[in-house]
Amino acid sequence: MKYHTPALLQEVIDLLDPKPDKKFIDATIGGGGHTLEILKRGGKVLGIDRDPDAIEHVKKEVHSSQFTVHSSGDLVLVQENFNRIGQIAKEKGFEKVNGILFDLGVSSHQLEAAERGFSFEKNGPLDMRMDPNLTVRAFDLVNNFDQRRLNEIFKTYSQEKLSWSIAGAICSARQIKPIETTDELAEIIKEVYRRFRKKGRLHPATKTFQALRVVVNSELLNLKEALPQTLDLLITGGRLVVVSFHSLEDEIVKRFFKHESKLKVLTPKPIGPKDLEIRANPRSRSAKLRAAEKV
Ligand SMILES: C[S@@+](CC[C@H](N)C(=O)[O-])C[C@H]1O[C@@H](n2cnc3c(N)ncnc32)[C@H](O)[C@@H]1O
Q: Residue 239 Cα, ligand 1 centroid: separation in angstroms?
């Protein structure tokens, strides 16, 4: 099973234009798909991910790949939250770089690993933490928040139309026993959809699961904190590339690019995947790439 297939790989590489001795920060290294392409072209990379599985995977991948990392400084890996990107870059000697990439969201590995609890398609514990050191799991939200707070989460972070009823069904179900698994939660949501005879293209649990994941991992807050730190790290002409997978993230990026006078926007409209890519990698379908250059 492939760890992750990078979305918009060619587009990202064209924008970052890696060359020997140029420096880059991959703030979400995941399976290392984008980073390996940068390394192959001679670039140096500081790779960050808050998930230790990703860091371990990339170490192995680089070790077993055909090309050689010439010196230990070519790839530096750090298991950290990218909301500390400024500090991490300084500590690792990447305080002036040619490009920074954020490829947001979760990796296929995280979704496929049942025990991580990210997916309604794989039965596992209600976890969803990208970093196992986080103290709050999806289980804690689902079993402790009242109907009003759950409704707020589902409405705000995924625009779920049946948020109030789903929140109510969760509160009723947990009076009998705690909701412990992804299957149990998905079943409760499916039942609400059945009751309202609501059908759609997406699995009924898609939005609720997304909202819980965003909250467990403070995804929007981390992005809001990280973006301004990138300005001091980029050299003039350096590029910031962000690939996002849902509208709330994209909105944050769009607004940041628009209001930041030190950035020239290179993508008046976000770039999405071509049909060919969507066919080969259906998970890329919601990817939106925005890029800007430091002036
Ligand atoms: C879509 S994957 C990246 C895939 C990667 N570009 C590749 O080609 O394989 C997103 C990764 O970002 C990581 N991530 C998400 N939020 C993060 C944060 N705040 N700090 C560090 N890593 C984060 C996740 O753990 C995940 O591994």
A: 19
